[in-house]
Specification:
Layout: E1 3-7, E2 15-21, E3 26-31, H1 43-47, E4 51-53, H2 59-62, H3 65-72, E5 80-84, H4 88-96, E6 110-116, E7 120-127, E8 136-142, E9 148-149, E10 154-161, E11 165-172, E12 176-179, H5 181-186, H6 193-198, E13 205-208, E14 211-214, H7 215-222, E15 223-226, E16 230-234, H8 241-247, E17 256-261, H9 268-273, H10 279-289, E18 293-299, H11 305-318, E19 322-323
Parallel strand pairs: 3-4, 4-5, 5-6, 16-17, 17-18, 18-19
Antiparallel strand pairs: 1-2, 2-3, 6-7, 7-8, 9-10, 10-11, 11-16, 12-15, 13-14
């Protein structure tokens, strides 16, 4: 299962920290980096973040970047990657240079910033020993499928409408295999090392009690495929009828949709003016996509806690699996 933490509190900035655990290794992914969103994390947890994904570059989604960068600017033992919509590298170049790098020659970290466009991903490299002065243009690749794939998870970017391009992200674990122990027992076989060997599709035969057995036949009988966990993060976007129809198929298989709750249904004109969505529009998107649940975040300070609860109730009327996280104490 993906371990997902909502960082920040209502009605302040929020971010999403997703840890994909593959057993032998982990991928730690941070989605957005608003003001004080990292306050709940230890320095070690911040340093362990592998990739930072930005939905867009409005202040409330990047104001906490300096806290992230302060912990990691000299992180040379691992690769440093930041992902965002077109223009991310240009804007971060200014952030990188907003400090006095008088000891730059002693630094060795390299930072890669990836601009995710509609059809391609452009990568730019920044060197700490150069005081981040040069924006080195790196490879450009055609965008097909996920923007990132690790052994533990893949990340797919969704183009969203929000005064230009904002990005949503879908994180998927790979499918897993499990042993059906009832089937093993029904075959009269004793568990043993052969079960682990059976999970390797390259193994053609296994030894059980001194007898060689055909691995392919046993796999069909005792190994079952289990879909990996899947979560989506979508914030600051317009979810009118046309956009819902476009986005719903892209959310197939999502267990939890973490999405903005910026406007009440009554404030739909305000939502339209600022290219946001009402909670009922997001709930309708969740219903159309068949997600497991819709978790509300990025609550607006224009409303009171009582109004937030009413927004949750309005969402539930459209999609009953709409909720706040328990830690916020709003239920």
């Amino acid at each position: 299962m993906l371990d997902v933490r909502i960082l920040g509190t209502p009605p302040n900035d929020n971010a999403l920290l997703v840890t994909a655990d593959g057993g032998q290794s982990r991928s730690r992914l941070l989605f957005d980096c608003g003001a004080d969103t990292l306050a709940a994390l230890s320095p070690g947890e911040i340093r362990a973040i592998d990739h930072l994904f930005l939905s867009h570059l409005h202040m409330d989604h990047i104001s906490g970047f300096d806290a992230f960068f302060r912990m990691n600017f000299q992180r040379g033992e691992v690769e440093n990657h930041i992902w965002g919509p077109p223009g991310t590298a240009r804007i971060l170049h200014h952030r990188f240079q907003g400090f006095w790098w008088n000891h730059a020659s002693e630094l060795s970290a390299t930072w890669h910033v990836h601009d995710i466009g509609e059809a391609e991903v452009r990568t730019f490299r920044f060197e700490a020993h150069e005081a981040f002065a040069v924006m080195h243009e790196g490879p450009c690749r055609k965008l097909e499928g996920p923007v990132l794939t690790t052994p533990e998870a893949s990340v797919t970017a969704l183009s969203l409408r929000h005064h230009g391009t904002s990005l949503g992200y879908v994180v998927r674990e790979p499918d897993r295999t499990a042993v059906d122990m009832a089937a093993v027992k029904a075959l009269g076989l004793a568990p043993g090392p052969w079960l682990a060997a059976l999970k390797d599709p390259g193994v053609r035969a296994v030894m059980i009690g001194g007898t060689e057995r055909d691995a392919a036949a046993l796999r069909e009988q005792v190994i079952t495929a289990m879909p990996g966990d899947c979560a989506a993060y979508m914030t600051d976007f317009r979810a009118d009828a046309g956009e819902r129809a476009r986005l719903a198929p892209l959310l197939a298989g999502v267990g939890t949709l973490y999405a903005e709750a910026q406007y009440t249904p009554e404030d739909i004109e305000l939502a339209r003016r600022y290219d946001h969505s009402t909670v009922t529009e997001i709930a309708e998107l969740a219903r159309m996509a068949g997600v497991g649940c819709y978790t509300l975040l990025h609550l607006s300070r224009r409303y009171s806690p009582a109004q937030w609860r009413a927004m949750r109730d309005a969402a539930c009327a459209v999609f009953p699996q709409s909720r706040f996280i328990p830690e916020w104490g709003l239920d």
